[in-house]
Amino acid sequence: MLDSRSTRPAPWPDHAIQTLNTRFRERPPEELLGWAAEHFGRQVALTVSFGGAAGMVLLDLVVRHKLPIAVVFLDTGLLFPETYALAEAAARHYGITIERRQPGLSLEAQECQYGPALYARDPDHCCTIRKVTPLREALHPYEAWISGIRRDQTAQRATTEPVQWSVKHGLLKLSPLAAWSEREVWAYLSSHQVPYNPLLDQGYPSLGCAPCTHPAGADAPRDGRWSGSAKTECGLHLEL
Fold it and tell me: pTM here?
């Protein structure tokens, strides 16, 4: 549990964020990553799901440029075996330590408290327990958070800027690949031989927890997430 007496940094002023976006909006992602490492030292973390391709690009850039940025993996307990295998393989491949964060409530305890298959009955609540709350706890020691989200992924992400203030987490949120296309992501993976989740080649263009993820067409990758419902976001990147 977080210490209620602790405080978060004061919000960055809008003009400072605008200046950073003007500086980095058209620049390669490694420049924003380098600035983050220089400015925040070890108080910046990169979250990698080991499902999406963009996160692997950022992980490769962090290691390639020898940046002292922590790598955080949210383990919901419901991920695909291929996702867990990639996380372990990436740690070996890059020779890094990955901070694995799990929910405070085990799957067994969650079932006892809320009944079986909460993800099917109330996916928002399940995501809050298994993703949103663990992320908040994982980010608490840090002053900046690096994410692989891009504008072309969902309507909610269409206005993503490289630098934004996260009111929800009380820190600076950095999205170095905000302007990248899916093609650019895959071109990087190919040219640098970056490992990625094999399910992305098997009809799963967007990966999350196994019970809530199904194959989908490449033209509508998020249709495979929470299929049959209006839900398109797990809540990690929503400020509400």
Answer: 0.91
CA-closest candidate to residue 69, choices 104, 53, 45, 49 = 45
Domains within the chain, CATH numbers bracketed = 20-224 (3.40.50.620)
Q: Which two tokens stand for residue 237?
A: 């990147």
Q: Using CA atoms, how far apart are residues 151 and 209, in angstroms rounded to an integer?
A: 22
Q: Mean of the pLDDT values across residues 87-93?
A: 97
Nearest Cα residue to 128 out of 112, 104, 98: 104
Could you read off the pLDDT of 1-19 as tens digits, one per residue? 444 335 666 789 999 999 9
Residue numbers annotated as active site: 234
Q: Are 177 and 206 in contact (CB under 8 A)?
A: no
Q: Distances in Å between the alpha carbon of 163 and those of 3, 22, 144, 224?
A: 27, 10, 10, 29
Q: What angle do CA 60, 63, 69 make, to 5 degrees?
A: 110
DSSP string, the chain: ---TT--PPPPPPHHHHHHHHHHHTTS-HHHHHHHHHHHHTTSEEEE--SSSHHHHHHHHHHHHTT---EEEEE--S-B-HHHHHHHHHHHHHHT---EEE--SS-HHHHHHHH-S-HHHH-HHHHHIIIIIHHHHHHHTT-SEEE----TTT-GGGTT--SEEEETTTTEEEE-TTTT--HHHHHHHHHHHT----GGGGTT-SS--BGGGB----TTSGGGGBSTTSS----STT---
Enumerate the β-bridge partners of residue 146.
46, 174
Say if residue 26 is exposed, middle or buried (CB neighbours under 10 Å; 0-12, 13-18, 19+): exposed
